[in-house]
Amino acid sequence: MRRLRPYAIPYLVWMGIFILAPTAILFVLSVTDLELYEPGPFSFTLRHFDVFAAPLVATTIGNSLALSATASAICLLIGYPVAFFLSRLGDKTGKILMSLLIVPLWSNMLLRIVAWEKVFTPDSFFTDLTGLSIDLLGTRGAILVGEVAMYLPFMIFPIFSVLEKMDRGLIEAARDLGANDAQTFFRVIFPLSSGGVLAGIIMTLLPAMTSFALPARLGLGRISLIGNVIESKLMKEVLGSAGMSINEGALISLALMLVAVVLFVGVARVDREGETLL
Amino acid sequence: MKKKRLRYRIYEAVGLLFTAAAFLVLYTPIVVILALSVNDSVKSYAWDGFTLRWYGDLFASDVMRGPIANTIGVAVLATAIATVFGTLSAIGINALDKRRRIRMIVLNNVPVVNPDIVTGISLMIVFSLVGFTLGFRTVLVAHVFFAVPYVVLSVMPRLKKLDPNLYEAALDLGCSRFSGLWRVIVPNIATGILSGALMAFTMSIDDFVITYFTSGSEYMNVSTWLYAAIGRSRSFTPAAYAYNAIILVFTVAVILFVNTRKDRKEREIRT
Amino acid sequence: MKKLLLAVVATALLLTLAACTAVPELHVLNWGDYLDRSLVDAFEDEYGVKVVYREVGSNEEMAALLQSGSSDYDIVVPSDYMIDKLVELNLLQPIDFDLLPQFDELTVIPRLLALYQDEPWVDYVVPYAWGTIGILYDTNVPGLAGDVEEKGWGILFESAGVYDVGMYDSPRDAVAAALLYLGFGVNSEDEEELAMAEDALTAAGFTAWGEDSLKSLVVAGTLDLALVYSGDFFSEYYAALDEDRDVTFDYHVPVSTNVWLDAICIPAAADNASLAHAFIDFMLTYEHALRNSDYIGYAPPFAEIYATMTTDAEYGYDFPEFDPFPDGADRQMYRYGSDARSEALVAIVNRAKSQG
Fold first, then answer.
1. CA of C334: how far to CAs of A113, C41, C80, C257, C258, in Å?
2. Which residues on C lie below 8 Å from A127 (Cβ)?
3. Chain A residue closest in CA terms to C211
4. Residue B139 has pLDDT above 60, yes or no
5. Is B30 helix (H, G, I), strand (E, B) or coil?
6. Whole-number pLDDT of residue A278
7. CATH at residue A199
8. Any idea which architecture C131-259+331-355 has in CATH?
9. How far apart are CA C104 and CA C111, in angstroms?
10. Which of A60, A138, A221 sits opposite C169 (nearest CB)?
């Protein structure tokens, strides 16, 4: 098997270029005044950190954490029972239903957002279809529903994978040893599936915090998430900010990346085999 | 005995309820999109009558042809490249000692856990600094970049189950290194490769954020085209809904096919 | 011998192929849906060249592309304030009007010309389209039409709790609306005036902040009114006419407002400036200009084209909202101002959004 090791080398180089290099660049942009579009001499500075205190950014971070945590929690509350249920069905049925739950992901995200806009507009196309007139545009509720609809499959899938592979014998053993259903679940099943749960949380929490098209349209632009701030800094504010908006955007991105990696390393510790994410 | 059955029935009912709720939440927008694809109106402020003309438009007019060709082109190419690269890399990673393997897996998972806006920006910055014009090539590289980890993650578990000596045995018996890979290792991890490829394709075909940052203004896939066109009534066409509907039908068909096919293969192996 | 012959033939073929693909190219950077492509095809045929046409969605993107220098464009179509900045950054070259005989056949509408003829960038532009910013409102809402006429800009800022108002998510336009509401100039750099503008924006309690999405929200009824560009109104108006729908909305321009001007410019780094001039001249030909303006649907900057579009029954652009500068109106045009001002605008809007 050692003979096969060299096959990993190109990948190492590739990852080096595409992960380590950008991270290094983001780091440099975050702590210096290097201008991305007009590179020249630059010096160390910590002033970009002020962006976290800037009015819109601070409220945004609060909103993002609150909303995405709620969305993630809802995904877990709905997703776990679904994953459990599907994993108990016959092998074929479970897999087919699981796959059908992923099908909406193939549908264009923006179109799904437009669809939800119609659902949440009173007296709209959706009303003509179903007779229901829902007035939720511009509310956190709309963003929440949109996010749950967008990310639920990402919660269900890892939990399903883990539950599916779980050794059923363990459950029987627990029964034999006298555990009731609640005990079996909370002491055997849930802990064993924790890797999947954590993976699901990572796959829903971070994307929920960083989406920008969804809050812009479903929140009517009133509720800003971190994704909106980053997008604005990188694309819209460039000319009017002496070029430093890109650096601020880089800093925020780097912070996000740190959070993501820390969470992931946490998962890796819980599940040493590194299998949980799929 | 009856008590047991009732409890399980309740659990089943609850499970079914939650699953139904999940399907409701996930498929509501899908149903709306399907309805929009047959509505006789561009802006669809209301239901204006049934029509199939958007499906016709999809093939007849040029508006979406470019973005669709781009989307599918990149998805197919990126999936092919990512699958080969990912599989070979996974084989290599699997052969490493435990410490190095874990390090590689952490590295591998960074694009997976990183929010796509961060990935998009990092890539955009790298491309800008190196001086690459944003366009088809940068989008392809970006898509391969975020697809490979899914292939690796999909293949690794199967590789682990494989007998480590199988490869060596094959070589001892006279196989060339290539044959050893292609005829011995690959068939045993085939399901992993396939599901990895499927994941890669899924991630690529609907990608918006990463393409948005790495495509510049020249190159458009369906998602970035939509993002630009959605506000303008002249360039937006409900053919986009039709396109989506077709993709959905196609996907469901593929899923049903793949799932029944696997069954047959397993039966073949057992007999 | 055979090998040598093959080599010679192959080289000859390659050379001819290379020559075939060496057709002159014109790189155009424009807004989406902002030029009749059939005219582009006609230009390609007439001049035997290839046009590489790229679309962007904002002035900022256009500027970023010109600054990064990743591709050299021969034609760009930015807006007034961005032209101001680009000329300052030396990214545009003056137009050689001697190369544009068709320009002499047309007259720029005097009122429009007066708005920018004293600007430093007047020689760098061939005007393309112009319009206003104003208030799009839902005519189904009882009493709203009357309120809009009466209050003008006030309707945007004094309707908290009464109407659902949408504001344009562009610092320059949002602050301009506030400044106009307060009776100040849109290019004001006065700190006090800007502070008052910020207060107005914060107190307004907008229901939505958006760009392209605002017009659809008004027509759908989610918003009662919104700050929009004249082009947004036209887009919804023409769409309603096309689909045979009732027009349940209208566009009101208060007496004093901002005029936007999009113009054709040639970047300083253009590869093919002479071909660029040829393209502009082609587009300035009366029939082409008329056809193009009809395609876009916005007000043309040339008196002759404007007259035809508004008086000739075949075109029918005689509805009142089409005229960007009617008699008795007061119009202003954006200047870029300083970088500090641009930063301040962004900060003002961000603060207003987080507290509003």
1. 35, 34, 6, 11, 7
2. none
3. A221
4. yes
5. helix
6. 41
7. 1.10.3720.10
8. 3-Layer(aba) Sandwich (3.40)
9. 18
10. A221
Q: Which of A55, A221, A235 sits opposite C350 (nearest CB)?
A: A55
Q: Which residues contact A225 (CB under 8 A, 6 or more apart)?
A: A60, A63, A64, A67, A68, A209, A210, A211, A212, A215
Q: Which residues of B touch C65 (CB under 8 A)?
A: 216-217
CA distance B53 to chain A (A): 19
pLDDT in tens, C141-200: 999 999 999 999 999 999 988 999 999 998 899 999 999 999 999 999 999 999 999 999
Helix B239-270 to helix B53-60 angle (10° resolution) is 90
Complex ipTM, two decimals?
A: 0.86
Name the domain count of chain A: 1
Q: Name the amino acid, one letter, at B86.
A: G
C340-355 pLDDT tens trace: 888 889 889 988 888 7
- A chain contacts of residue C213, beta-carbon cutoff 8 Å: 216-217, 221
Domain that holds residue B130: 68-221
When pLDDT is averaged across residues B41-65 and rounded to a whole number, the result is 88
Kindly determine whether residue A239 and residue C221, on different chains, have CB atoms separated by under 8 Å.
no
- How distant is the Cα of C134 from the closest Cα of chain A, in angstroms? 20
Look at B100 and C9; give whichever has higher pLDDT: B100
Instruction: Scan for tokens 């149903």, then name that residue.
Output: B31
End-to-end CA distance of chain C: 84
Domain that holds residue A53: 2-270
Residues of B in contact with C212 (CB under 8 A): 230-232
Residue A275 and residue B156: Cβ atoms within 8 Å?
yes
Region C2-130+260-326: CATH code: 3.40.190.10
Judge: C71–B230 Cβ closer than 8 Å, yes or no: no
What are the backbone dihedrals phi and psi of residue B92, each rounded to the nearest 5 degrees, phi first? -65, -45
CA–CA gap between residue C264 and residue C216 (Å, rounded): 29
Other CB atoms within a 10 A radius of the CB of residue B161 amount to: 9
**pTM of model > 0.90:** no
Q: Nearest chain C residue to A228 by CA: give it.
A: C350
Quick check: is A275 in a domain? no
Rounded Cα distance between C282 and C267, Å, is 18
Q: Can you give the pLDDT at residue A165?
A: 79
Could you tell me if B226 and A110 are in contact, meaning their C-beta atoms sit under 8 angstroms apart?
yes
User: Among A37, A47, A56, which would you mutate to test the C interface (most chain C Cβ atoms within 10 Å of its Cβ)?
Assistant: A56
